[in-house]
Amino acid sequence: MEEKRPADDDLQRLREERLRELEARIQGTPGGVLEIVDDTFQETVREHPSLVVDVWAEWCGPCRMVAPAIEDLARDFAGRVTFGKCNVDQNPAIAAGFSITAIPTLLLFSNGMLVDRVVGAFPKEAIKARVVRAFGTG
Predict the structure, then answer these.
(1) Number of structural domains, the chain?
(2) Annotated catalytic residue: which of 34, 63, 106, 107?
(3) Using one digit for the tens of pLDDT, what is the confidence trace for 84-95?
(4) What pTM did the predictor assign?
(5) Is 63 considered catalytic here?
(6) Is residue 128 part of a domain?
(7) How far apart are CA 84 and CA 10, in angstroms?
């Protein structure tokens, strides 16, 4: 029988940590909403043909009003449209790249291209209508 070395234990621990990190990224935030960050933004846009990014900040009252609608819509459109949240305070490159000057702002990407932008706090049904129009899915 082969003796287990300490390095093997370290390697297994690292594998388990990496797996937990990947699972957390896939699960994202509550409601199946992905966390969108500067470092992986382009990759995320490429991986998800129909993507809605909610650009928000913790201190923004209207952003907190939109959050439950985004989580509901993520469940409603599961498997058809991916929803993500991008905190502008933690991800300034995304905000600068899209000239975001007001939040909440929703960015709708179809096959990697920005196809719509919604600025302001709108009710769930209004957001849903824009999603359906952008992606042709109900």
Answers:
(1) 1
(2) 63
(3) 999 999 999 999
(4) 0.77
(5) yes
(6) yes
(7) 34
